[in-house]
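Escalated from tier 1: aspartic acid holo job.
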Amino acid sequence: MKHLIDIMDLSVGEISELVDTAQDIIAHPEQYAHSCDGRKLATLFFEPSTRTRLSFEAAMYELGGHVLSVPGGNTSSAAKGESVADTARVVSCYADIIAMRHPKDGAPFVAAQSSLIPVINAGDGGHNHPTQTLTDLLTIYREKGRFDHLTIGLCGDLKYGRTVHSLINAMSRYPGNRFVLISPEELKLPGYVREEVLEANNIEYAETADMEEYMPQLDILYMTRVQRERFSDEQEYLRLKDSYILDSAKLEKAGPDMCILHPLPRVNEISVAVDSDPRACYFRQALCGKYIRMALILKLLRENDGVPAGSRVIPSQKRLVNVLRCRNPRCISGVEQELDQVFVLTDPKKNTYRCLYCENEAEETPQPGNANS
Ligand code: ASP
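Tier 2 regenerated the structure:
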């Protein structure tokens, strides 16, 4: 494993290994204080962040390493029009590992194609956020002691909430997990996650707009913020933003051991009164983010020691190159210089092609015979 772009880049065994390392770091931090002496992490954040960026930076400092950082996307050459590919190639000359956050879906994937050092996706648009998922997994393990046979409620913005997409992918690999998808109609889970993760793997799930309906059955309630920055219509955001507010009254229906998670920041989705409820785990979750990122940096640097990271291996399915155009306005393929438009065949029975970068479904159906790979 050379880069972490998608949580599925990690096997279940590697996830266990990271969780074990993080637990060991928590127990014996002094043993890791010099593990990354002389190594440099570049944090390239082209979108706002508090927890992810600071936990990456704190992680590298606590491993004895250094951090190189541009204070914001606007002050880097990206503001002059530099491509993501060029930025990654150049930063490879100065650092040993990159953590990248970008507003465009698929940008860290593109960075990984040209980077000579490992790239970690620290959140790409409304697509994925694998290190938040590692944080969630460490928290779940510490709170629940297992990853399997859990009923997991995901509530809020399931459409644009990238942490939700990565978490469903991850938890779908453990046996016996069930999902309750709680959202307004407009913010339902994207088809590529529902069909190709849940349905394709015969995973039990329910969809509801009512946050209390399944509350007594939940082992985990994962609250999310409505992702204002992904809306093209502000009025739509204002209409939906307070769809769900978890308060003490609603929690009366929940079991005594239900674990409340939230990737944070919260805007209004969890009443402050809930913070003192023993089931509220979200601040402990934020702390887990630092330890699991320490484990991840260690793993990637060790595995790539002395070996140029090289391009990320891309899926081997049949693909169409420069035949279709991605219509997702948030996809990196719409803005990156000279990037091929690549669509991958994800469901041969339905002839479904998805964009390689953002996973949105092709809007046109390719004509027989024009597949070129
Ligand atoms: N911090 C998380 C993210 O970057 C959740 C959020 O912003 O709502 O996706």
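Residues 282-304 form the longest helix (23 residues).
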